[in-house]
Amino acid sequence: MQKTLFTKLAIIAGLCLIFAIGLSMIGSVIYERQTYAESVVREIAQQHVNPQEIITPFIAIPTTLIPECQTETSETNNKCAAAYTKIETIFANQTQATQDLDVSTDTYQRGIYHATSYNGALTFDQDYTFQNHTFDDAIANLGESTSVANPEVNQISTDNTKSKIKPEKTTIHWDKARLIIPVSDLRGLATLPTVTIDKKPIKATYPQIPIIKNITYVEVAIPQEILSGLGKNVTEKRHQVIDIMVDLPLAGISNLNTVPTGQNFGLTMHSNWLTPNFIGKALPNTKKLTSKGFEASWQNQYLTIANNQNLSQCINIANNQCTVISRATLDSTHQSMNPDTGMIMQESSPISDADTVPNSFREVSLNSFGVSFAEPNDVYLQTERAMKYALLLILVSFGTFFLFEVMKSSRIHPIQYLLVGCALFVFYVLLLPLAEQIIFWKAYAIAASACVGLIGWYTYYVLGGIKRAAIFTGTLAGLYAAFFGILTTEDMNLLLGAVFCFAILACVMVMTRKIDWYKIA
């Protein structure tokens, strides 16, 4: 008898090991389906529009610099370096950004797969204050361009060889001043934005010759009469402020990041999405979740000032030797799956020779924050979490069968253990394809009902009575219900799972407390 008992336990343990191997194979199927779904979303992004990353609009002014030059008068040799170009940046003194997003999962679909997309109306309300004396003097003498020279002019050396020092000269091209509106994927602009500068509406355009390398943007030429007006009234503080309003219609998928710039930046976001995942280098200062969506507000002075410094330093590098690259993409080779990765700038040393190609680059990141529109019904994640309790479900079912054998003297063949285990195993085979078609809880309910009903009908014949079959079926249905309850409580699932395991162990110990195992053996 003792040999028979240990043989039965060894068979049960062997069956559990076989099913554990089978569950690992189902896990690989889940991973394969999840990978394929992600590849479909990437394909949709390549054909339509990527996740978006927006840099707060700023003003860029091209300048030409002629370095300090020493000319030998006794010879014709010229030691002057070549002139080179730079971009001066002016950031807004005040920016209030508003983003109203309508999020949907029905816009882009491939069979049973889809991408979460959004259409939004983005607004930037900005004030630019021109208080720099160099700019004030330049604006006061506004022409096609303005030259600013070093005050140390025409120094004559006392050496035997006379030389003449030409000071560094900067030419500011005010006629080419542009409002830059960077958007990581311009395919998301259904129409070009309308920009209002001092109550004057102007349509943005695509740049014919980009003045900033490797960054996609639309631009607006700053009207010369506005800059001239600043120069004529440079002594009046109220006329040194330009009001700019940018209305930006934008579409994208998966997530939206904003790179804040300026002196004082605030962002308010409204959306109909119920399950936002806030990402980036800063969480919202305030957020409100309702049955109709969410509202969130950001304001982080440190990140904004750091972006001002890094962006202006990068753009100001000579001859565009620093490039700004957006990482807002679903391509894993660009580290897109990391939500904290923002804009990247590759920077080389500031050189004046336009023909020189730098051998190495330095990466400087821009800080961003925003929202990822997480799927409320991520079937692969929930199926994977459900499988974590699969082996426990099989063990409890086999254990219940074994207790019927011990306590009720029922004789259950290993083949019958195997068939019940296969029915429990098929639950997960049914769950995944059903969850890809319908809501997860409905898929779970259908798969669980089918397996519980099949096993309940089978155990009626195995256990030889409706009462015993009802006890086993009720136990199994309770396990499925308890596991689903644990799955739906994301914040406490580990605690509830531990309590549930303890409760099962306690029930088994209570039920077997009076069994004389030596007598059974």
The backbone outline, from C-alpha atoms, is: elongated
Main β-sheet: number of strands, strand sense, barrel status? 8 strands, mixed
Instruction: Give the integer mean of the pLDDT values.
Output: 79
**Structural class category:** alpha+beta
Poorly predicted regions are 152-162, 233-239, 331-341, 345-362
The proportion of residues forming helix, as a percent range, comes to: 25-40%
Spatial gap, N to C terminus: 5 Å
Strand order of the largest sheet: 12-11-14-6-5-16-19-18
**How many β-strand stretches?**
23
Radius of gyration: 35 Å
Number of helical segments with 4 or more residues: 11
Strand content: 25-35%
Short descriptors:
single chain, 521 residues, alpha+beta, 6-stranded antiparallel beta sheet, 11 helices
